[in-house]
Design brief:
Structural class: mainly alpha
Distance between the termini: 86 Å
Shape: flat
Oligomer: single chain
Number of helices: 4
Number of strands: 4
Strand order of the largest sheet: 1-2
Radius of gyration: 26 Å
Strand content: 5-15%
Length: 143
């Protein structure tokens, strides 16, 4: 049996129960479907945040290990935990039907970047001043 249209204080308004969302105050909000571009953007933001957290934990772990705050075994355990958390986050993003197209698109973009670097970019690398100085001091680089 179809639902009757709901009435608002300013007149009669039909709210589609499929696209209806209840806020914390139990007020119906009409939610529009999101396009592929915004799904991809949302997935990109999720992946960027996951990657940033992975880098942050990696940096903190290496910093703590460098100053002797963690022994080698604890440092390795923390790195494995960090990688598992990042992997679980990525798996759940792939299982979410809203984000799967965006996650796969971002993955294809990363794969294209890796292929480009393997074929073209790695041949265009230059030494940093520190690397050039170290190689020159070792005698590996001619003047």
């Amino acid at each position: 049996m179809p639902l009757p249209p709901r009435t608002a204080s300013h007149g009669s308004v039909h709210v589609d129960p499929v696209h209806e969302l209840l806020s914390g105050e139990a007020v119906a909000i009409d939610v529009q479907p999101v396009g592929v571009v915004f799904r991809a953007l949302g997935a990109l933001i999720d992946i960027a945040v996951s990657f940033a957290v992975l880098l942050l934990f990696g940096w903190l772990g290496s910093w703590a290990g460098e100053f002797g705050l963690l022994d080698e075994a604890t440092s390795r355990i923390l790195m494995v935990v960090t990688i598992v958390i990042a992997a679980v986050t990525l798996v759940y993003q792939l299982l979410d039907p809203v984000f799967v197209s965006g996650v796969l698109g971002v993955g294809a973009w990363f794969a294209a970047g890796i292929v480009w670097f393997a074929l073209v970019g790695r041949h265009r690398l230059v030494l940093s001043p520190e690397e050039a100085f170290a190689l020159k001091a070792r005698g590996s680089v001619a003047d």
